Backbone:
């Protein structure tokens, strides 16, 4: 069982959350070539170890969060709001 610490609701069982996507993939520009869009939509790596993912607290506050998780041990190194991080990355 994974215990995810929602920034609003506190620690919750992972069954309350839905996996969103790989948070390490950046969206290409609107006018990017088709090959970049193909890679963005369809190509994913299968990382072993530390990985950053988007999750939604679907059975709770419904907020989107970014979870830093080890895919081997399922240890969670950190959780933060997805939109707060997106704003920092744009600066």
Residues:
């Amino acid at each position: 069982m994974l215990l995810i610490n929602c920034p609003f609701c506190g620690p919750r069982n992972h069954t309350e959350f839905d996996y969103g996507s790989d948070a390490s993939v950046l969206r290409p520009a609107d006018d990017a070539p088709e090959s970049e869009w193909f890679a963005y939509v369809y190509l994913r790596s299968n990382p072993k170890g530390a990985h950053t993912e988007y999750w939604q607290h679907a059975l709770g506050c419904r907020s989107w969060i970014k979870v830093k998780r080890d895919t081997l041990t399922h240890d969670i190194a950190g959780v933060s709001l997805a939109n707060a991080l997106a704003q920092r990355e744009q600066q």
